[in-house]
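Q: What would this chain look like folded?
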Amino acid sequence: MSAIAYITDSKMLELHRLNNHRTINFWRLSNNVNFSDFGPGDLVFFLSKDKEHRKGREKGIVGFGRMTHVSLASIKTMWDRYGIYNGYNSLAEFKEAILKVSKDKELPKKISGFYLENVTFFQPVYLSECGMKISSNVESYIYLKPDEVVLKLLDLGENSSDLWSDLTNNLRTIDEERMLFALGAAHRQIRDVESTEKKTKKAVKALKEYINSHPEYRFVQGSRNELYRWNANELQILFYHDRDTDMKQLIGQAALYHYYIDLYSREEVPLKFSVSDGDPTVEYHINASR
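A: My prediction, written as structure tokens:
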């Protein structure tokens, strides 16, 4: 799981915040939709260039969202598709904002956009408080590394919420996003249990069918044979299992998840583990003590 901090138009963010938009189209002048080490499920933090959000010369981070997909389209198509969720009240305002940041002061034929969900806002927090230095000359975006920087940012954001955030349940979102980032960071250390490509394809097909009957489950980011669900502050991880799978491997996998999620979480997260061969009516629980 990755995260970037992107220079953001504060006027656009304020419209999203005041309208309590939890999904937005985070538009970009660039028509490049391919990022290295960044994709669906990763986090975009909003780096504000507004003077009121600065601490000295350092820009403040005022929120974030989880990216679901990237799109490339003309300005008119972007407006027809997302409307006010682009961050402006009209197409004319949208074009004006694009012209303002265009280097040649011309409207590009196409722009790209990150579609973000679980968008959350908070009072400014600063990367220097997370042990990461950022140049005041950043013009577009930076990667946020290591994982501990992102986790610290989410902690600071939760502690820097305003009344509006409290009223719109943004705190609950931050708590969930922190858990999901910890899960992704844990999987990046653990990886999937080794398997053949044929067996992995079988697992993916079976688990997709399982999700059809259990939509509360999703694939663990980066995994092809593990699902998760987050319910009532409890994290459940489901492993694909068939007759050729060594159960001892899955118990070991569960123990590693215990270790790394505890490492990345500020408090002990209730964890449960289960296995399934994809049959939506059958699920077995397994024990893996901390």
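The mean pLDDT is 87.
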